Amino acid sequence: VNQIYPQQGWNEIDPEDVWTKFQSVFKLALENADADVSDVKVFGLSTQRGSFVTWDKRTG
């Protein structure tokens, strides 16, 4: 995931970039496991430090 430095001493990550890369890795993991997305009951996504992003449960 690419890091963004909006000013000296600050460090951010783009949530869209995190989500896009997560989807790619998730798809590859399913392919390597010869599994289907319906086999997955839950997944976790974690970032470092105090990062957060708001999530709309209707639109994702």
UniProtKB/TrEMBL annotation:
InterPro entries assigned: ATPase_NBD, FGGY_N
Annotated ranges, domain Carbohydrate kinase FGGY N-terminal: 2-59
Keyword Transferase: yes
One GO-annotated biological process of the protein: carbohydrate metabolic process
Example of a GO MF term: kinase activity
Alphabetized UniProt keyword annotations: Kinase, Transferase
Tagged with keyword tRNA processing: no
Record protein name field: Glycerol kinase 5
Originating organism: Daphnia magna
